[in-house]
Each structure stands twice: as structure tokens, then as C-alpha cells.
Amino acid sequence: MTHFDNTPMHPIGVIHSPFDEKFGIPRQPGLASIRAEIELLPPYASADAVRGLEQCSHIWLVFLFSATADKGWNPTVRPPRLGGNERMGVFATRSPFRPNPIGLSCVRLSSVNIDGNSVRLEVEGADLLNGTPILDIKPYLPYADSLPEAEFGLASKIERLELPLVFSPEAEQACATHAKRLQQPLDRQIDEILQCDPRPAYKKGDAERVYGISLYGLNVRFRISAEQIEVISILAE
């Protein structure tokens, strides 16, 4: 039997994203139009290494679940999609608590920027925590990677709340101010993230409970009822 104890695995880069903590990150890529930047690390920060990549509209990111890598794994997990009450086999889920804490995300590639020994990739739709190590980058191949006939009964469609988003007067003003400073469509991004409903399943019945997500170094405080999503405040952390 072949032994793989010495199999080399080194980060080739790191992602810079506006997500400073796990809570609030969409559970799958592409659900929010969040822009991020992948910084390639030496010796992989080479123009030769990304030659031709600019022809891709989308790329696969293979990454390390660095925030949970030391937490170990179990044969079964409780997926949030099932309310956190039903156990499933870890290999039937995308849980970060895996035997090898490796994740996979498909993102839109906006640009490839090369400046001397600096290589940075601008991407959109990443669901990765700021500082996440990138292990590999692969081109998305439409003819092979898109399988319209594929099925998975437990996750057959995107689940969104589709509730109206309402800003308090203070939050609306803060959103406009920070959107201008960041040069980001902050109101749309907040809407996309909150429509994914980051709340723990067992607390969704409490319409008065206030939650907070960290985005671009901002504390976005909100609550969700059956009628609407209300952004209460947006404060610099």
C-alpha cells in the first residue's frame, strides 16, 4: 500500500475578502456579488504561472478551511440547510469539518493583474473568509463542469428569503457613506448576504433578536421577521 505521509501541500496564495468572520458568509459561492482579491505567493507569483488564465470567465479555487482545520472531523455532521437537527454523512455535505479540511469554490474571474513580482486576481462571488489560504487554481470548463442533468435531492435549488430589505434612516445614511468610500454597491451586497439568512436554524423563530455580520470592517446589525429584513445600524468596528 502506498503511503502519502510526505505528500507536499503548500498554499499558493491568500485571499483578501471583506468577510472578517465566518458568520454571515454565504454558504455557497456566487450567492452574493462580493469582490475579493487573490494574492499569489512566491514562488507562484509568476506571470508564467497565470499565462492564459485571463481567457477564463470563471475559475475553481481549492482552499484550506483554515479557521476550522484544528477542530477535527466526525463521520456525520448537522447541515444548516436541514435545520441543524438531522445528521448526514460528512461526504454528503460541504461541511468545513472534514478529514482533510479542503474546500472548493467556483468564482467569476474579473481580472488578472501583474506588476513585476506581484500577481493578483480580482474575483467575484467568493464565499471565503479573509486570509484563507488558496491551495490551487483551476480553470472552469463549461463543457465538462456544467451538468444540467445533475441531481441532489437535498439541495436542488437556491434557497433565499426573498423578503423586502429595509434600512433605518441611520443605517441608510451610513450605507451610502461607506459605499462611496469603499467604491462598492454596499446596499446590494448586504441585501444578497441577508437574503441567504445567516441565522442559526434554531433561532429563526425570534423576530426581535438582533444579529451582526462583519463586512469590510463594518458591523452590520439586523433582524429578520416574517415580513421583512431590517438593517438597524452600520457601524465601523
Automatic annotation (TrEMBL):
<keyword id="KW-0489">Methyltransferase</keyword>
<dbReference type="InterPro" id="IPR023370">
    <property type="entry name" value="TrmO-like_N"/>
</dbReference>
<dbReference type="GO" id="GO:0089715">
    <property type="term" value="F:tRNA (L-threonylcarbamoyladenosine(37)-C2) methyltransferase activity"/>
</dbReference>
<feature type="domain" description="TsaA-like">
    <location>
        <begin position="9"/>
        <end position="149"/>
    </location>
</feature>
<dbReference type="InterPro" id="IPR023368">
    <property type="entry name" value="UPF0066_cons_site"/>
</dbReference>
<comment type="similarity">
    <text>Belongs to the tRNA methyltransferase O family.</text>
</comment>
<keyword id="KW-0808">Transferase</keyword>
<keyword id="KW-0949">S-adenosyl-L-methionine</keyword>
<protein>
    <submittedName>
        <fullName>tRNA-Thr(GGU) m(6)t(6)A37 methyltransferase TsaA</fullName>
    </submittedName>
</protein>
<dbReference type="InterPro" id="IPR040372">
    <property type="entry name" value="YaeB-like"/>
</dbReference>
<dbReference type="InterPro" id="IPR036414">
    <property type="entry name" value="YaeB_N_sf"/>
</dbReference>
<dbReference type="Pfam" id="PF18389">
    <property type="entry name" value="TrmO_C"/>
</dbReference>
<dbReference type="InterPro" id="IPR041369">
    <property type="entry name" value="TrmO_C"/>
</dbReference>
<dbReference type="GO" id="GO:0032259">
    <property type="term" value="P:methylation"/>
</dbReference>
<dbReference type="Pfam" id="PF01980">
    <property type="entry name" value="TrmO_N"/>
</dbReference>
<dbReference type="InterPro" id="IPR036413">
    <property type="entry name" value="YaeB-like_sf"/>
</dbReference>
